[in-house]
Structures are given as structure tokens and as C-alpha cells.
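Session log. Operator J.P. requested a structure for one protein chain; no other inputs attached. Running the standard single-chain path with C-alpha cell output.
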Amino acid sequence: MFNLSSIYSPITSQYPNPGDKYVPCDALKPYIASFWGTECPESDIPNEGSPILVIPDTCVDIIFVMDHRTNSFSGHYSGINDRPFMTSPVVETTRVSYFAIRFYFWGIHVFSDYHMRDSLNTFEDSNVYFNGWDSFFKNLLIQTSLIEERIPIAERFLLSKLNIHKKNDHVLNATYCILNSKGTKHIKEVCAYTAISQRQLERLFLEYIGISMKKVSNLVRYQNLWQDIAFSPHYNILDFVDKYSFTDQSHLLNAFKKYHGVTPNQAKKIMFE
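Structure written below.
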């Protein structure tokens, strides 16, 4: 599989990104961006918590949570999303452990038991796409205490579930073309690069990723634009109009606000709060 992660590193609305320091082993790096979760044996969730802005970062997450007070467990799959939202504030105090895996959008299907169609903006029970994973991760959260202990055990499990025969070269070639151009290539150019018809490629994207090529391109362009804005001490928005093939400044700002919910200046302020 192409190491697409070497040319694309999506970010969230805040800095640093969750799980930045918990990167996977080399064998999983082409598919998984990071792990994240509780760093202590248990985490005390306070009565009041500030909502967090969640933006389309083009990654997908599997999140496992163990409530030690009620001995209840849940596993959820958070599919690729194309709209911003605020997390709900915490309204209850409890003792929990959680462990999550953050996948690149092109890497999730090689672990799944199911196609990715209809997974856009979903938050489903993990068994819908990953049958039998709950029991393994429930035991992991019960039998281990620290995230550093959990990661190597989880990696061995994930490697056992990795099915490289499910990868599709047409999808990977198209994804490389989109990432390498920072989302600025026209869809016809992407199809020409892969040498198959647009109709075939769109069908494959819906099956393996869950969204259309055009939506992937738009999200990748937005992510690259956001990184330029976030990490440039001083920037001129007009410079990005040409760089990312927008028609004008208004087009860029509307596209950014569609995915981020706020203006670039507001987004930058939120990131470093």
C-alpha cells in the first residue's frame, strides 16, 4: 500500500491534536493516524465541561469506553464527516477509561467486515462495521490501566484484523492524486490518472470510503487550507485563493466556513485557546 500518510497529515480544530504522541507501529502507519484515550487508569469526568468544536478532519474513529462505576461498556464507530459540530457538555460525573483508534479515511476498509457506504456523518455501534471487536477491547480496558500498556496489545489485534487483499489500487491511485494536488485536481483529471471511468471510480469511493471523490477532494483542499491558515503567523487570504483554485475570496471564505463553522480568524483563535 502507498504510504499516503507521508504526504498528508490532517489536523483538528485545536492544537495539539488528540493522540499526536501515540503513533502506531510502522506496519500500521499507512492506515492509522494515532491512538488516543485516558492516560491514567481512570479519568474523572467533571460535572461541567466546555464543548469542543469538531471539524471535518477526514479521519474516522473507533471509540471504546468503560464506565467503572456501572461496569458498562460501549463501542462506537464515528464515520467520516463533512460538517462541523460542537460536542455536548458533560452533565454527569463518572469514572471512565476509554481507548480510541484514529484511522485515515483511505485505510479503514481493510479492517472492516462491511462496506463503507452510508457511513457519512454516522456514529454507529462499532459492531455494525467491526463485528466482535467489543469483547476484545472491553477486556483490554478492564485488564490494563495505562494507554501505553494498551497500545501494543491493540496493535497486535489490529494486525490480525488487517486484510490487505481488500485494498483497491484504483482507489489508492485516485487518493494519491487528490492528496498530492492538495485537493485541487478536477475529477476528470483524477479519473485520467487512474485510467478507469468516473462512474466506476465513484462507485468504488462510495464502497471503500463512504463519500464521493468530489467530496473527498473538497475536504482535502479544506484541510490543507486550514493548515496554512493555522500555522502561518501572518497570512493573506488572497494568496490562498489561487493556491487552492478558488474562484475568488468569497468562494474561499464560504467554503471554509461551511466546514469549520467560523471565519479563518475565529478558527485560529479557537485553535490556540
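Operator note: The mean pLDDT is 91.
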